Amino acid sequence: MNQNSLQARTQARVLFVDMDSFFARCEQQVNYWLRGRPVGVCVYTGQFGCVISLSKEAKARGLKAGMRLNDAIKVCPDLVPVESNPARYREFHKKIIGVLKEYCQDVVPKSIDEAIINLTNYEHIHPDPVVVARRIKQDILSRVGDFLTCSVGIAPNAFLAKLGSGLGKKPPYDGLLVIDPQNIDSILRPLKLGDLPGIGSNMAYRLERGGIHTPLEMRYAPAHRLKAIFKSIEGMYWHYRLNFIETNIASHDYKGMQAQRQISAEKRQSMAYIEQLFMTLCLTLEKRMVRHKFYCKAIAFTARYKDENRWDDAFTITTPVQDAVSLMRMIRLRMESLKNSPTPPLF
């Protein structure tokens, strides 16, 4: 399905639904006694397990996703570690998507806890997207789980709707924010480049070197200038996203997917950073698989070292998976089995 267009849209009719602290909330949904307590969902609950989702109570204590469990416990001694349950999260995800599809069929899951609802062609059925957003929030609470809250962004395209869903989690928006041609400049003005979804520290640095210091400057930069700064057509896509042109509702045919990242010598010394990167790569693959309705049947991973050695491995799996938690767990178990093997394989 491809709903992209080079025509700028001015009406805010694309909704981006982002579930709040999804894995942690799912655990609090099924276990009443976890509600109101700082909860950390981990790939495994060993001493050095990676925390992949935190309840709002844990976030309020200063914890961040990607922390190792021993470090998280130091910051928040009463943290309740819970081992992840991918099957549970998938079931809640299916129920949530079922609710969304009752409003229209143009629903595109972006990950296990995010989805786009494109109401562009449903103006007569749903004249007011804000009313739809409020009903969706209530339907999820009443029909899926009374502890499963979400934030909804509404905008003329999916990227700005996603931005709205993130900003909408903070006061005074109460989980619902509309971005349109009338307010976009005021929304972007206080933001930093890194506040835009998809702009990391390296890309922010590149933009600043190119003379772009804020999202508002980025919005008004000519497409050819952004293309030169990004050194690819991706720069033009950023111009489109910030000017109401749709670039984010599409699917492609893939036989395989990959996610990779190079790590500087300094960052290689930090296990916490490596754990965070491992989680980020798996979440990237999850989003792509969910977006294109794919499941993983084989996994390959590679680590290259500064001395030019490398570690390669690949294996098939019995039950196809689609979520980052399962990917992380299987790769970790594979690595542990190889490490503990009496005759470790040579790569």
TrEMBL record:
It holds the Pfam family IMS. Residues 14-200 form the UmuC domain. One of its GO terms (molecular function) is DNA-directed DNA polymerase activity. Keywords: Nucleotidyltransferase, Transferase. Its EC number is 2.7.7.7. InterPro entries: DNA/RNA_pol_sf (IPR043502), DNA_pol_Y-fam_little_finger (IPR017961), DNA_polymerase-Y (IPR050116), Rev_trsase/Diguanyl_cyclase (IPR043128), UmuC (IPR001126). Belongs to the DNA polymerase type-Y family. This is DNA polymerase-4. The lineage of its organism: Bacteria, Pseudomonadati, Bacteroidota, Sphingobacteriia, Sphingobacteriales.
